[in-house]
Amino acid sequence: MEIHKSRVNFPIMASVWLTDNIFIVAGGGGSGDHGVPNHCVMYAFDNETNEVRECFTLDLKDKASYCIDFDSDSSKLFIGVGDSVVVYRFDAENECLEEETIHNATCLVKAVKYCNRADQLFYGDVKGNVYCDGTRKMNFQDAISGLEYNSAQNLLAIATRGCAAAVVSLGKLDSPFRFKLKECPQGKFKDIRLYYDVFIFGVSIMDRDVSGGYFFLKIDTQTHRVLTNFHRVYTKNVGHSSFTVVEDSNLMVSANSANSLTAFDLRTKNAFKAIENIHSIVTSVAVSPESKTVLTTGWDNTFNLFALKQVTKKGRERNIIMIFILLVVLIAVMAKQLNK
Q1: Do 197 and 148 meet the contact criterion of CB atoms below 8 Å apart?
Q2: 8 Å CB contact between 58 and 80
């Protein structure tokens, strides 16, 4: 079970850890007179007692937030607020956020990514527009669902709610390489994460046998074209909701449409046993910087905290139990043969 569970008064759409003890959740009900607020809330987490303390609340007025990102030293926060991205400075001493600048879009912003090496801010909206520091640079037919940055290669990966995606060098924004996954023409990209030099795309697949999956793509550093789709992980009967990657532990922590939390070993591609029924609908998954704590958020106005070792321990316990059962069965069969 979770080590902490809290309820707020708005549906949570996005989350991020700023430090190993400070995290932020954001969301809301959007515009309208329905009485559901739009907030961004900062919390402090005590690793010893597992207690959570509210530090600071931003009132986003009549605009909900669906995405958050931060810079490498967690000094700045980039929050998609309605049809704009607001840049905040994180004041660690006073545990608060101070607004700095605002970048506008033509409609609702659904993905944001700050590229540290290039010092550029990218974000995408539901009409398929991709912006760089407030200027529209690209357009796709479908809503932008994910952005990810590979600083070593200076590449930006873009995912859409259709089955189209793109990779572009930040030095050549006018010539993105666009592609589709031939393996899932009915698929819809949900988001992207980076695992060393590999982009992992989370996909919901409209197929009677497969409902979701993860596609691992390497990019040629010279041409920026997809070298190979060298591995795929399918999840039957459940769609993909959200996931994150823990590089130093070679783990992918994922939530699915059945509202279960599962860890995957990225070396073996094996899954640990899932923790079930964590939310009514999972909206985001994030792991603390020191890879100790997993934060999940939901449409049901709740957020949960899990120990990362708990998420993987369940799978190891299951393997030990299965081995024990097999040994017992084997001993029973051998004893039966000896009695004959």
Answers
A1: no
A2: no
| Bridge partners (DSSP) listed for residue 121 | 114
CA–CA dist 119, 76 (Å, integer): 12
Q: Let me know if 93 is exposed, middle or buried by CB neighbors in 10 A (0-12, 13-18, 19+).
A: exposed
Q: pLDDT digit string (tens) for 48-77?
A: 999 999 999 999 999 999 999 999 888 999
315: helix, strand or coil: helix
Tokens of 326: 């097999």
Reported as type and span, the H/E element at residue 328 is helix 308-339
pLDDT given at position 16: 96
pLDDT of residue 190: 85
| C-alpha radius of gyration, the chain, whole number | 21
Closest CA to 212 of 193, 187, 191: 187
pLDDT tens digit sequence for 244-291? 999 989 999 998 878 889 999 988 878 888 898 899 889 999 999 999
3-state secondary structure of 66: strand
Burial 113-148 (b: 16+ CB within 10 A, else e): bbbeeeeebbbbbbebbbbbeeeeebebebbbbbbb
Q: Answer with the residue of higher pLDDT: 216 or 112.
A: 112
In the chain, the amino acid numbered 328 is V
Distance CA 326, CA 333 (A): 11
Helix (H) or strand (E) holding 324: helix 308-339
pLDDT tens readout for residues 117-132:
999 999 999 999 999 9
Q: Is the dihedral of CA 119, 125, 130, 133 positive or negative?
A: negative
Q: Are 10 and 37 in contact (CB under 8 A)?
A: yes
The share of the chain scoring above pLDDT 90, in percent, equals 56
Nearest-angstrom CA–CA distance, 208 and 46: 45
Report which of 251, 247, 268, 267 is spatially closest to residue 310, judged by C-alpha positions.
Answer: 251
Which neighbouring-strand residues pair with 7?
302
Give the model's pLDDT for residue 179: 83
For 8-64, list the strands marked E by DSSP.
Answer: 12-17, 22-27, 39-45, 52-59
Q: Which residues of 50-67 are buried (b: 16+ CB within 10 A; e: fewer)?
A: eebeebbebebeebbbbb
